[in-house]
Design brief:
It comes from Jannaschia helgolandensis. Pfam families: GAF, HisKA_2. It is an enzyme of class 2 (transferase). Its EC number is 2.7.13.3. There is one protein chain. The protein is of the alpha+beta class. It folds into two domains: about 150 residues, Beta-Lactamase (2-Layer Sandwich); about 130 residues, Heat Shock Protein 90, CATH 3.30.565. About 45% of the residues lie in helices and about 20% in strands. The protein contains nine helices and 13 strands. The protein has a six-stranded antiparallel β-sheet. Strands 8-10-11-13-12 form a five-stranded mixed β-sheet, with helices on one face. Strand 2 and strand 3 form a beta hairpin. Helix 6 runs antiparallel to helix 7, helix 7 packs parallel to helix 8 and helix 8 packs antiparallel against helix 9. The longest helix has about 55 residues. The two termini are about 60 Å apart.
């Protein structure tokens, strides 16, 4: 017997979509629950079954080798029509199931009990059900356990939805921050055009630092989990490419990075550090229109560490009584990375290095 359509079918189907059911989003999340339901009820089969518009799909299966049926074979479509657990001791004699293909076919299902998986608004999505190939009844403790486990399924769905909303909000914030930073960078660049040479240099330096953060937010916006390490090689190369576009005429910038994954906070510090390395080399190594080359490299070393080196073939360092802003920013970034910054003359010019742990406790 085909079950009547639920009186709140529109709301039901909307909730199913909202919880990403039938999309593989919950793969494996309910496997332990159906195994426990089967053990506690002493039934060979247990399912998390969601009743869709045209079929039922099993989000978790124990004891069957298929993952859904049409509605003509769905017992759970009857279960969602009532508030209490639906228990059918012998499916061969119940009018709702006696002509069900799973009952009339080979190796028939002869017992069904399903506890509704219901939202806080009282909308049933499907059921946690147990099935047997012999007629029987559940005891009171088994019925309570089935109800508790069905509630556990719903709680996990609510958690999934809360995390999805949190992720959507985080992405929106990242998107807005990225756009705001990009606007600030653009306005700074425009204002620099009419400024004095000294002010222009300072404003363009600020613009480059803002652009580094824009690139980082681009990667964060694409990341599924902001707390997990993200592959930052492309990000670092984009930062270097941006600096290449702004480098003095005749100064070439070469970059090469081994693959590395960092959490967002450390990726930001590394991006700022690379920005300052190249900017300092452009500023100090090639005065008076001198041409030359800057080589920036990142390499994996032993024991989970990563080494960055920036070498130029310019005139060397500029003597100063105290470190400039760029040097202080590099030292602060190095501290965030838990690495030691070294700057020293090289046979061809000047070199800045840092080695830091890829992961931290």
């Amino acid at each position: 017997m085909l079950a009547p359509i639920h009186p709140h079918q529109k709301e039901r189907l909307a909730a199913i979509r909202r919880y990403d059911l039938g999309t593989q989003a919950h793969g494996g999340a309910f496997d332990g629950i159906v195994e426990l339901a089967a053990q506690m009820s002493n039934c060979p089969i247990a399912l998390v079954s969601i009743v869709h518009a045209d079929d039922q799909k099993f989000e978790a299966v124990c004891g069957l080798d298929f993952h859904g049926t049409n509605l003509e074979s769905s017992m759970c479509s009857h279960a969602i029509l009532q508030e209490e657990i639906l228990e059918i001791p012998d499916t061969r004699v119940d009018i709702r199931t006696r002509d069900n293909p799973l009952v009339t076919g080979p190796d028939p299902i002869l017992f069904y009990a399903g506890a509704q998986i219901t939202t806080k608004a009282g909308i049933p999505l499907g059921s946690l059900c147990v099935l047997d190939r012999r007629p029987r009844r559940l005891g009171d403790a088994e019925r309570r356990a089935l109800r508790i486990l069905a509630n556990q399924v719903m709680q996990r769905l609510e958690l999934h939805e809360a995390l999805r909303q949190q992720d959507a909000m985080r992405r929106e914030v990242d998107h807005r921050v990225k756009n705001s930073l990009a606007n600030v960078a653009a306005m700074t660049r425009m204002a620099a055009r009419s400024a004095t040479p000294e002010v222009r240099e300072a404003m363009l330096s600020v613009e480059k630092r803002i652009s580094v953060m824009v690139e980082l937010h681009n990667d964060l916006y694409r990341s599924d989990n902001p707390d997990e390490p993200i592959e930052v090689t492309n990000y670092l190369e984009r930062v270097a490419s941006h600096l290449r576009d702004m480098s003095p005429p005749g100064v070439e910038i070469e970059v090469h990075f081994d693959s590395v994954a960092l959490i967002a906070r450390r990726a930001s510090a590394l991006g700022v550090l690379i920005n300052e390395m190249i900017s300092n080399a452009c500023k100090h190594a090639f005065p008076d229109g001198r041409t030359g080359r800057i080589v920036l490299s990142g390499q994996k070393t032993n024991a989970g560490r990563y080494a960055i080196a920036c070498a130029d073939d310019g005139v060397g360092s500029v003597d100063a009584s105290e470190p400039g802003l760029g040097q202080r920013i590099m030292e602060a970034s190095a501290a965030q990375l838990e690495g030691l910054l070294r700057t020293f003359p090289s046979p061809d010019g000047y070199r800045t290095e840092i080695e830091f742990p890829v992961t931290v406790d």
